[in-house]
Design a protein that fits this description.
Number of helices: 14
Bound molecules: 2-acetamido-2-deoxy-beta-D-glucopyranose
Strand order of the largest sheet: 1-2-3
Helix content: 40-55%
Number of domains: 1
GO molecular function: mannan endo-1,6-alpha-mannosidase activity
Distance between the termini: 55 Å
Protein name: Mannan endo-1,6-alpha-mannosidase
Low-confidence stretches: 1-17, 399-451
Shape: globular
Radius of gyration: 20 Å
CATH topology: Glycosyltransferase
Family: Belongs to the glycosyl hydrolase 76 family.
InterPro entries: 6-hairpin_glycosidase_sf, Glyco_hydro_76, Mannan-1_6-alpha_mannosidase
Order of helices and strands: HHHHHHEHHEEHHHHHH
Strand content: under 5%
Number of strands: 3
CATH class: Mainly Alpha
CATH architecture: Alpha/alpha barrel
Signal peptide: 1-19
Amino acid sequence: MARLTRLAAIAALTSSVYGLDLKADSSDSIKSVASTIAQQMVSYYHGNQRGKTVGLLDSPPYYFWESGAMFDTLIQYWHLTGDNQYNDIVSQGLQAQIGPNENYMPTNQSASIGNDDQAFWALAAMSAAEAKLPESQGNPTWISLADAVFNDQVARWDNSSCNGGLRWQIFALNTGYSYKNSITNGMFFQLATRLARYTGNSTYSDWATKTFDWTTAAGFIDAKWNVFDGAQASTNCSEMDHVQFSYVAGTFVTGAAHMYNINRSNKWKSALDGLLRQTLSVFFPDGIAYEVPCEKRATCTTDMHAMKGLLAHWLVDTIQMAPYTSDAILPKLKSTASAAAATCNEGACGFEWSTGDKGGNKTDVGYEISALSYVQGLLVGEAVGPVTASSGGTNATGTSTGSGPGTSGTTTTSGTGTPSATANAGSIVGAAIYTTGPVVALLGSVAWLIL
Ligand SMILES: *[C@@H]1O[C@H](CO)[C@@H](O)[C@H](O)[C@H]1NC(C)=O
Ligand SMILES: *[C@@H]1O[C@H](CO)[C@@H](O)[C@H](O)[C@H]1NC(C)=O
Ligand SMILES: *[C@@H]1O[C@H](CO)[C@@H](O)[C@H](O)[C@H]1NC(C)=O
Ligand SMILES: *[C@@H]1O[C@H](CO)[C@@H](O)[C@H](O)[C@H]1NC(C)=O
Ligand SMILES: *[C@@H]1O[C@H](CO)[C@@H](O)[C@H](O)[C@H]1NC(C)=O
Ligand SMILES: *[C@@H]1O[C@H](CO)[C@@H](O)[C@H](O)[C@H]1NC(C)=O
Ligand SMILES: *[C@@H]1O[C@H](CO)[C@@H](O)[C@H](O)[C@H]1NC(C)=O
């Protein structure tokens, strides 16, 4: 109680004196604050400058995944606010990093890329398809890029320990190859569910179900719907690391919401409700998003600064897939967005929102991803839902064989470039799509190149 009172005092003080003045019930105010934070976020990106690489934030300190996550945040920014000023850098970035096999494994990253890193880019491509970011002629379609990553990871499913699951790392020499973790399997789960919803192809939903069932059976998710970090394959996943990060829970919440959207069975309703309840309870003490394992002692790393924002991004998607969840989610987004905005000034946002700490000069792109995702998320009620192939999206999945432009799945038409597609917000695609729905047009033969 004392803490809440102090928080309210800090919020009142900072919002008038230092913070960005967010009126959480005014869409103009939300858009204005979001626009300021988006600009701050993009100021960290120098990919178009001489000597820099298109599509990448500076490394160090940023790993490959975070650039993909930043572009995904910008797609959601456009989708929610209608401001398309960053769409060109997003498109260029997402195309520049596809790599020689059109699967988001650029050669430069091969020393360090993990399954989760690769999946962040696939999810950004998926968002591009769902928001109808224009396809670019001669390049693989957004959906074919997401599908290529999906197929890579299917081939990496590992039965040799723990009765299945994906390893964190792709290459055996990398630290973490022996670790099987929830984020890796949860990102693959989310990707599979979104491909399933978008295409209606049951290969994806079968893998989503299999991955989810494995994750619960292996104890990575417990009976109370806590989502733990992972376990070593070398001990057959017998010793669980029980630390809980917010985005790990978030990827399972949104995956469950996508499954619920395409199949309203009890299985997915109870998974969604259980995961959501536990996630909101663990990560929003006092109603403000909080990175439990590191925030109290200020030991969050650069990677960890973006995690709360990824959670927000996926909670917004959850509302779109299962609108009834809005009653539980939106109040948390509101209280967090106000607290976050109060720590921002014209140059940067803070991170420890529940204390009102402005972060001094200690800031990075993750601070901005996090603050922006809560603020822009407040617009979810005004936004249209993501499209599917049958509601105005691009159908072709195709292949990624590295043979360059002109291969199957390469686009020959441009999208309309507006997010105002035909799907209604939170529209539910009937389960009938599996049996009677359109079959995805697969142009040409399928020849997956497995690395
Ligand atoms: C790979 O790294 C080189 C050298 O830094 C750079 O010039 C090139 O643009 C990078 N390619 C990609 C796809 O990131
Ligand atoms: C893994 O084992 C399952 C049965 O437990 C089997 O269906 C599947 O084909 C196996 N996958 C691989 C890649 O060996
Ligand atoms: C590993 O654990 C699985 C259950 O997760 C069990 O089925 C399997 O027999 C175990 N393998 C070994 C080698 O202990
Ligand atoms: C919906 O999910 C349930 C539970 O997993 C499953 O038994 C059923 O086959 C699914 N229906 C469709 C059409 O996929
Ligand atoms: C932040 O940096 C500016 C100039 O770089 C400096 O004047 C200011 O004292 C710093 N603030 C904090 C809290 O460290
Ligand atoms: C995708 O397929 C559906 C169903 O066959 C069709 O109605 C829709 O027009 C197609 N979209 C495109 C962009 O081809
Ligand atoms: C469904 O997707 C899988 C995975 O990409 C692909 O192998 C299969 O051909 C697709 N099926 C149809 C009917 O398009």
